Amino acid sequence: MARGKLRIYLGAAPGVGKTYAMLAEAHRRIERGTDCVVAFVEHHGRPRTEVMLHGLEQVPRRRLEYRDTTFGEMDVDAVLRRAPAVALVDELAHTNVPGSRNAKRWQDVEELLAAGIDVVSTVNIQHLESLGDVVESITGVRQRETVPDEVVRRADQIELVDMSPQALRRRMAHGNIYQPDKVDAALSNYFRPGNLTALRELALLWVADRVDEYLNEYRSEHRVSRIWGSRERIVVGLTGGPEGRTLIRRAARLAEKGAGGEVMAVYIARSDGLTSASPKELAVQRTLVEDLGGTFHHVVGDDIPAALLDFARGVNATQIVLGSSRRKAWQYVFGPGVGATVARDSGPDLDVHIVTHEEAAKGRGLPVARGGRLGRARRIWGWLVGLAGPAVLAVLLNTVDLGLANDMLLFLAVTVAAALLGGLLPALASAAFGSLLLNYFYTPPLHRLTIADPKNIVAIAIFFGVGMSVASVVDLAARRTEQAARLRAESEILSFLAGNVLRGETSLEELLERVRETFAMESAALLERESDVAPWSCAGRAGFGPPLERPEDADVDMPVGDHMALALTGRVLPAADRRVLAAFAAQAAVVLDRRRLQEEADRARTLAEGNRIRTALLAAVSHDLRTPLAGIKAAVSSLRSDDVAWSEEDQAELLEGIEEGADRLDHLVGNLLDMSRLQTGTVTPLIREIDVDEVVPMALGGVPEDSVGLDVPETLPMVAVDPGLLERSVANLVENAVKYSPRGRRVLVSASAISDRVEVRVVDRGPGVPDVAKDRIFEPFQRYGDAPRGAGVGLGLAVARGFAEAMGGTLNAEDTPGGGLTMVLSLRAAGARAETVPPAADIAEPPGGAAGAEPPDGADIAEPERQAL
Predict the structure, then answer these.
(1) Lowest CB count within 10 Å: 56, 309, 572, 709, which one?
(2) How does DSSP assign 133-188, residue by residue?
C-alpha cells in the first residue's frame, strides 16, 4: 500500500489560524468529492473555528480515565477502520494521555500514513524539538510537548499560516483566542509583541530553509548547476576534547543557513605522537558529524595551524570553526595558540569563527605521552646539549673540586639530558666526549689521555655504558611510539576502506581524492592499459597536477595487477607508507570494476527497454494498426459490392469511416516513427526564432472546433525552437487533453513569459493523475486508467516530452486547481543562454490576515484518479 501524504499548517503562535485553515481546506476537498473526516480537532471554544466543524464527519474520540478525569483522545483504530482518503489531525506535538496507543500524537499520525491515509495536521514553531532552547530563551517557557524536526521535515507540504504580532494581539483582545479572564495575563506574558516577533522570525526562517531544500531538489532534478553560487563549506577543527560536540553542532547550524552547506570535521594528529586524543571521544564526534550529514577527516601534521589551513584551502572551504583555547593564561607565554594563529594566517578568503564552550581556559585535559619520534628541533637541541654541555660542565668543574665520583655523575646527567632530547646519536656523542673530558681533566695523570688507576678505567667504562643504555631506551621508546601512531592511522584508513567495500558508497574520484588528501599529494590518478604493449589511459584522477601518460612519470606508482597502476605526484613517499597505498590501490581497482559492472547493467537495462519497446511496437502493429485497416477494408469492400444498392447517405457514411480510419493510421504511424527517432537518437532539431502565436494555432487542426480556448498574447518574446517539433508536441498535448476532458468543458491553451523562458500551458478539467503517476505517463505505451484499446498506443506524451527536451525545453505535469491536469511546456526564449532552464515552481504565498479570513487554496494532498494517456 502506498504511504499517505502529510500536509502541515505551521504557525508562529497559538491563534494565528492554523486549525481554521485546515478546516477550510477540508470543506474545499469535500466539495470536490474527496472522502475527508475529522480524526481529531480541538476548537478550544473559539466560535469561528467551531462553526467550521459543521458539515464535517467526525470520528468519535476514545475516552480514557486518568487521575479521576476523563480525557478524549484520537481513536486510531476507529480511523483505520473508517479508512478515509484524508484525515484531519490537530496539534501534531500533543502528548497523549497515559494508556493511549502511542505516547505522542505524531506517532498516531505515522500509523495513519503507513496505512495509506493522507493526513492534514497543525503545529506551532515552538514545538519543534531543535528549537526548544531558543524558544525558552525568548519566552521564558520550556515547551514540554515537542515533535522531532525530522517528522515535520518529511511532510510532503508545509504551509505557513502567518499573522503580524499586532493583528494577533487584536484577535486576543477581541476574545477570539482565549476566554476573557485569560486575555490580560496572556497579553502581558507569552503574547508580548517582542515574543511574537521573535517567534514569527523563527517560523519564517525555518520555512525559508525548507523552501531552499525544495528549490535545491528541483534544480537537482532539472540539472540546474549554475543558478546558485559556490556553496558554504565549513571546516571544524577538533582536538579530541569534549568541546568538539559543541563545535560540530554550531557548524551544522551555520551550514543550514546557506544553500547546500557542507560540514567537514578534521582532527589533526602530530606525526611524533606526542599528543593523542581519546579514541572514544573521537569516535563519538565522528558519529555525530556523520549523523548531521557531514564528513570526518584524520590528518597528520606537526604544525597544526598550517595543517588546518592547508586542509581548508584544499577542500575550498569558506569558513573555519574553532573552539576557544583550553590553555590557561600563563600558557600563552609559549605562543598565541592555534585559534589566533589560524585567524591571523587565514587571509581574506576564509572566515574563522571562535566558539566559546564550557571547557575554555580549563587546561588541555588530554593525555600527553612523553615518548615519540624526535623532531628536528629536539634533535638539534640534543646535539647542542650532547656536545656543548660536557664542555661547559668541564669549565665549571675546573673552578671547584667535587671529587671524581660527583664529576662523573654530573657528566652522566648531561648525557641523559642529551638522550632525552636528541635520542641515540647525540647521547653517544655526549658519552664519548664526556669520557674524554673526564679522562683529561679529572683522572690522574691530569691533562693527559692516559689512566693510571685501573679503578678509574672501570668507572669511565660504566659511565659510557650507562649513557649508551639510556640513549638506546629513549630511541626505542620513540620508535615504538611512532609505530603505534602509524598503525593506528593505518587501522583507521583500512577500516574506512573496508566500510566502503561493504557499502559500495565511494566513487572512484572520491576515493582518489581521499588518497591525495591522506598522503598530502598534488594529484592521484588510476592508469590502465589493455596489454603490455598498449598505451596507458587514465580511468580517473583527482587533484591538480601534470597529466600522466605512464606510471613511470609519477613520483609514486603502485601497480595493481599487470595492467593497472595508481600514480601520485607531489613528493616521494617513504617505504612505510606503501602498505596503506597498496590497500588504496586495490580498493580503487574494485571501485573501477564496480563502476563498469554498473555501466554494463545500465546498458543491459537499456537493451531490455529497447526490447520492451520493440515488443510494444509489435503489439501496437498487431492490434491498433489492424483495427483501422480492417475498418477501411470493410468499407471499401462494401462500396465495391454489386449485391447492395447503397444510398448516398450510406456511401457518405462509409467514406467518412474510411477517412477516419486513414487519419488514425496517419496519426499512429507518425507517433511510431517519432518514437523510433527518439529511441535511436536521430532527432536533430533545426532551431530558429519564432513567435509562439504562429505555431500554437497550427497545432489545433486535429481537434473538434470549440473544444479548445486560446490565450496566447502577441507580446510574448520569441522562442528558439524547431517549429515542426513544437507544433507536434503541442498537438499531442492538446489531443490528449481534449480526449479526457468532460463533455462541454473546453481545454485552455495559454502562454506566458517567466524570466528568460516562455511557458505554454495546456489545462484540462478531466479526472487528472495522482502525483505518483505524473512521471510514468510520459513513458512510452502508457495509457493510464481505463482507456480503451482504441484510444491509441500511448505514445503521444512520450513523443511530446522527447521533442521538448530535444529543443532544450522541459515538459511536466501539474495539478489544475479545482481538478484536472495541466501540462507545462517550458521553452527557451530567443537570446537566452542554452543551458538556462526554467525557474523553480512557484511557491504558494502563506495565508494571512485577520481572524476569520480564509486562506487561499494550496496544492492538494489527495487527488482522484486522473488523466489517462
Answers:
(1) 572
(2) HHHHHHHS---S--B-HHHHHT-SEEEEE---HHHHHHHHHTTSSS-HHHHHHHHH
How big is the CA angle at 559 (ends 554 and 561), to the nearest 5 degrees? Answer: 150
DSSP strands (E only) in 611-725: 688-690, 708-711, 719-721
Write out the DSSP string of 417-455. HHHHHH-HHHHHHHHHHHHHHIIIIISSSTTSS--SSHH
> Contact, 148 vs 842, CB < 8 A?
no
Mean pLDDT of 157-183: 83
Q: Residues of the chain with pLDDT > 70: what percent?
A: 76
Instruction: Give residue 849's Cα distance to chain centre.
Output: 36
pLDDT digits (tens, 9 = 90+) for 95-133: 988 888 888 999 999 999 999 999 999 999 989 988 888
pLDDT on residue 7: 93
Kindly report, residue by residue over 687-722, the tens digit of the pLDDT.
889 998 888 888 887 678 788 998 888 888 999 988
The span from the CA of 411 to the CA of 395, in Å, is 12
With CA atoms as reference, report the closest residue to 270 among 236, 235, 240.
240
Structural contact between residues 19 and 38, judged by C-beta atoms closer than 8 angstroms: no
Which is it for the CA torsion 571, 572, 573, 578, positive or negative? positive
What is the pTM assigned to this prediction? 0.35
Contact 106, 56 (CB under 8 A): no
Q: Do 474 and 422 meet the contact criterion of CB atoms below 8 Å apart?
A: no
Q: What is the rounded average pLDDT of the residues 76-92?
A: 92
Which cell is 646 given?
Answer: 447503397
Residue 675 makes CB contacts below 8 A (sequence gap 6+) with: 613, 780, 795, 798, 799, 802
- Who's near 430: CB < 8 A, 6+ residues apart? 385, 386, 387, 389, 390, 414, 415, 418, 419, 467
Which residue has 619520534 as its cell numbers? 373
Of 554, 577, 567, the residue nearest 526 (C-alpha):
567
Q: What does the buried/exposed string (b/e) look like for 135-170 if buried means 16 or more CB atoms within 10 Å of the residue's CB?
A: beebbeeebeebbeeebbeebbbbbbbbbbbebbbe
Strand pairing of 295-300 and 319-323?
unpaired
What SS3 class is residue 336? coil
8 A C-beta contact, residue 389 and residue 417: yes
- DSSP per residue, 261-324: -EEEEEEEE-TT--B---HHHHHHHHHHHHHTT-EEEEEE-SSHHHHHHHHHHHTT-SEEEEEP
C-alpha distances (whole Å) from 713 to each of 692, 807, 830 are 9, 22, 16
Give the relative orientation of helices 796-806 and 723-740 as an angle to the nearest 10 degrees: 150
pLDDT reported for residue 306? 85
pLDDT-based confidence at residue 576 (cuts at 50, 70, 90): low
Widest Cα–Cα separation across the chain = 154
Query: What local confidence, expressed as pLDDT, does residue 374 receive?
Result: 59
Comparing 792 with 201, the larger pLDDT belongs to: 201
Stated as kind and residue range, the H or E segment containing 234 is: strand 233-238
Q: CB atoms < 10 A from the CB of 30, how many? A: 16
The rounded mean pLDDT for the chain is 77
Is there a contact between 733 and 772 (Cβ–Cβ < 8 Å)?
no
Cell 492554523, located at residue: 18
Q: Is the pLDDT of residue 453 over 60?
A: yes
Nearest 10 degrees: CA dihedral of 322, 328, 329, 333? -90
Cα separation, 542 vs 544, in Å, equals 7
In this prediction, residue 333 carries a pLDDT of 55
Query: What SS3 state is found at 708?
Result: strand
